[in-house]
Amino acid sequence: MYKALVIGGSAGSFQVITKILSSLPKNFPLPVLLSLHRLKHVRSGFVEALSIKSTIPIVEPFDKESIKPGKGYLAPSNYHMYIELNKRIALSTEEPVNHSRPSIDLTFETAAQAYRNKLIGIILSGANKDGAHGLKKLKQAGGLAIVQDPNECQVKTMTEASLKVTTVDHIFTTEQIINFLLNIK
Amino acid sequence: MNKYELGIVDTRNIIRTLQDVYNYDFKNYALTFFKRRVEKIIGNYNLKDADEFIQKIKTDTALFESFLQDICVDTSEMYREPSMWRVLKEEVFPKITSDTLNFKIWFPEVASGEELYSTAIILEKLNLLKNVQFIASSISELNIEKIKKGLFDPKKIEFNDTNFVRIFNDSELSDYYTHKNEKAYWKTSLIENTKFIKQNVIFDDYPKGIKLVLFRNQMIYYNQILQERYIKIIYNCLVPGGYLAIGNKEKIDYWNSDKDYILINDSESLYKKKLS
Fold this sequence. Notes:
- With 185 residues, chain A is of the alpha/beta class.
- Chain A has helices at 14-23, 46-53, 104-115, 132-140, 157-165, 174-182, and strands at 4-9, 32-36, 58-59, 72-74, 80-83, 89-92, 119-123, 144-148, 170-172.
- Chain A has one domain: Methylesterase CheB, C-terminal domain (Rossmann fold), CATH 3.40.50.
- Helices cover 31% and strands 20% of the residues of chain A.
- The longest helix of chain A is centred in the middle third of the chain and has 12 residues, at 104-115.
- The model of chain A has no long low-confidence stretch (mean pLDDT 95).
- Chain B has helices at 8-22, 31-44, 50-59, 61-71, 82-99, 114-125, 141-149, 157-165, 224-237, and strands at 103-107, 132-138, 151-152, 177-180, 183-186, 194-198, 210-214, 238-245, 261-265, 270-273.
- Chain B has a 7-stranded mixed β-sheet with strand order 6-2-1-7-8-10-9.
């Protein structure tokens, strides 16, 4: 019944992300949209590092690439990643939001417009408030909002900012996130 | 945070107005981008909603000109993706000048001018600037005026300078601009040899005999229909063997496109028009 999973993370989220990606079944039924803060000048290495651990293929998509289930899409460095209504990726070099490009807010907000109540969003560890507004939009559009348990986060600013503006559906530890995702049909 | 949000119907109405009143057709812009951009513009102009924007822009041509400027993304920087500029400097320009002395470079949407000035400075350093004719098209007259004056945002200086030393370690970018009283200007002598063309969304006037087209991260704001149309026009502008540089996350992928172009540098999305 869900059509997509979107994940946002920043400082302290890399371990969590790799743990999640290494636990998904190979035939995971949803596309996984990843908006993670990363170094602007380091174009290569990140998607490779995620791919080594991941059970599903992870790509840095090209502009207008169509989104397929069972595949991960990592926002490329120095671009925002939007989700178009026709379920394609659209990239943008517009100004950074919350000092970030990619901006988690923008990926979440546009994914919410495209997938409405068929979207699951997860905010992980991070050091600024990016993602909070996006998760709120996702929730308003009827999506399912999950936040990593701040007590488990290396840096809890991002999860706490999200919890402040949105009544989320679940506050989960990494293990609980994984169990939840394993039970998605 | 509670900014104005445009519905799909409002967005379509705005597109229709711009088409009817000004004959500018934005329907093949990427929808999410266009919608977000207009939301921002409505906010910047202190307008209430789409209806007020439509009423105003219908009669206010100055507002329309400023809309055309604001729809262009001006947040690029000098030498974005330094690795691509190294390829131009070390491979493409030497290759081009090994078989022709004078050549033309076209910027199909010059936006805020960073790509134009970046190219001019490289050619100046290679002592080739006098041999090159630039053609710079834009939908925004205001941007063209700004570029002619050399004006740029001083907030970008730090990024720009850092990128530049990744390409040239024997000089400073500040040799090419002045920064005083919170304003920054490029040396406009760099673009003396530039022909500017004010254009509509689709070209009504485009150049021929082009050796290199620089069009990075502009087509991402179009949908696939408009992208394909642009790439086909560019094909007709390029000389056989001419180069096309697009953003490193863009690709040419229409039906049979491999008959027209060859990808010569995968990581930088640099293409070459086939010889025949």
